[in-house]
Amino acid sequence: MLIPLYTPRHFRRLGTWYISGWRIKAYGISAHAPEKEQFLQPELIIEARSFVEANLGRIEGAPHYSVGFVILHHGSSAKTLLTQWWVNECVCMQYAAQSNYSGQPKFSFTKSDLMACAYELVAIDFERRAWISTVMSGKPIEDYLESWLPDGLNLRGISRCRANVFMTACRVCYPSILQKPFSPAWNPLDEGMIPSFRAITPDDTADLQDLWRDAWTATYGPSLGQNALSAMLEDIERKGTASMLPGSGERGHCMASDHQILGSAIVAERGAIAYLWGMYVHPSQQRKGLGSRLLRGVAATIETAEKVEIRVLVSSPMAIGFYRKHGFTETSGETIEILDSVKASALVMSANIESLKAAVQGNPNSFIATSNKPA
């Protein structure tokens, strides 16, 4: 029997899924990218998350740490979902599910003794090493949650680490293994790196899309529902950054390190008002002061406007609190159109530009908000 030769497949973070107190790291693998426009179908991701959520009872049986990871793999002949979680200090539990290969995705538990394929074992091996190097080395669970297998094309199916100290992603191993070797959701402050505020460039397109996917999944899935989230993810796959940067005189800014964009903000000055939207910090980097630094940088770029105005979803109380702490007040309420098929109730919040500049100077560690461009 001839066994097909190993061929590279694309790996990508799908973000952390926050489900009923659980924090689940989600990976995607595709045998077809980049031949297809989409890495994974948004409806496949939505169905996978819904399946995990619907079967939480299956993973609640034994004492656990409310953390785990999933691998969603669109292979050459199967669509597989592996759900794994940590129990009893060092034990990794798993169940496997598969979806019909064509038509609307629908997962069900496998009837065989399936564990994982050679491609899926790459991510499993990385997660094993991450658990050992963080939680089983006396570090907090948050360090494990911020350790990610880098996005990119896995050329040899290797995820070993030869470094003496296992960092978020080993810089010794991965440059020779991945085309895009280092773009995990890590904490740059742990490495003495200070993210910088700068303008968005065309080279940031892929990283911005990754940031927005993760932020939208964490924020809009719970608040707007899965149908709205699916529509938003489809929109960004189809339009790219034009989904948020329509090219109508706006300026895009970001908080970035050498390796990854950690936050974004978009502003457009129109007369006396500077409209702010697209303000996000990656879910894994929130509560670290990046939101305040991002807002401070935006305020410094405003040239002629006298006040800043933003629409904040009513369903985002943390966002509302963030802006209040930084000098914003509610002026009115309205229904905003996120997409043609997605509408939501929002508060219009505004701040005098001078008051904003004064407020952001003294708030280095606040929550980051979620917001939308003006209708």
UniProtKB/TrEMBL annotation:
Gene3D superfamilies, per database record: 3.40.630.30
Residues in N-acetyltransferase domain copies: 195-354
Pfam family, any one: Acetyltransf_7
Molecular function per GO: acyltransferase activity, transferring groups other than amino-acyl groups
Name of protein: GNAT family N-acetyltransferase
Organism: Rhizobium sp. ZPR3
